Amino acid sequence: MPAAVIWGDYFNQSQYDSVMVGLHYGTGPDPDASSYFSSRAIPAKAGAGNNTMQYANPTLDQLLDNGTSTVDQAKRKDAYLKIQQVLHDDMAFLPMFQYGFIEGTKKGLLGYVNTPNVVSNAWNIRTWRWQS
Questions:
Q1: What is the CATH number of the domain that holds 90?
Q2: Rg of the chain taking only CA atoms, in angstroms
Q3: Which of 23, 35, 43, 65 is least surrounded by Cβ atoms within 10 Å, i.e. has the fewest?
Q4: Is the Cβ–Cβ distance between 45 and 56 less than 8 Å?
Q5: Residue 130 host element (H or E)
Q6: Is the pTM here over 0.90, yes or no?
Q7: Domain encompassing residue 62
Q8: What is the pLDDT of residue 3?
């Protein structure tokens, strides 16, 4: 490997047959995962995103577009549930573990909700309040 090239360059350009890496797919309060699974997010094919496994599925692309193009919560939920099923059926990746984040809160804090689906558990901070 040339000195000027780092491992990340090989990873980002999908220069591997198989790879085991620690990834965190936390997407925030909006479950859009287009950056990881859309065929338009393949860096090795000039895409802007993190789809280094070069996963491509036209059905999934359409579901991702449907989920991000509507504000109707029922339609979004339906699209994201179908996305999960497609990813499961295709086994686009094989999760071996999930990172565990440990956070503490002060007694009397109401409205705090821990969730593994976001990077920060401050996702619903607008609902927090102190017990009176």
A1: 3.10.105.10
A2: 18
A3: 23
A4: no
A5: strand 129-130
A6: no
A7: 7-99
A8: 47
Residue 19: inside a domain, yes or no?
yes
Residue type at position 58: P
Q: Is residue 37 part of a domain?
A: yes
The token duo for 43 is 């860096």
Contact 27, 120 (CB under 8 A): no
Residue 27: predicted pLDDT: 59
pLDDT digits (tens, 9 = 90+) for 44-90: 888 788 888 899 999 999 999 999 999 999 999 999 999 999 999 99
Q: What is the rounded CA–CA span in Å between residue 86 and residue 57?
A: 9
What gap in Å lies between CA 86 and CA 109, rounded to an integer?
A: 39
Dist. CA 100–CA 27, nearest whole Å: 15
Q: Based on the fold, state whether residues 15 and 54 are members of the same structural domain.
A: yes
Amino acid at 132: S
Instruction: Specify the residue for token string 């179908």.
Output: 82
97 vs 105: CA distance, rounded Å: 25
Residue 1 in any domain: the answer is: no
- State the Cα–Cα distance between residues 65 and 60, nearest whole angstrom: 9
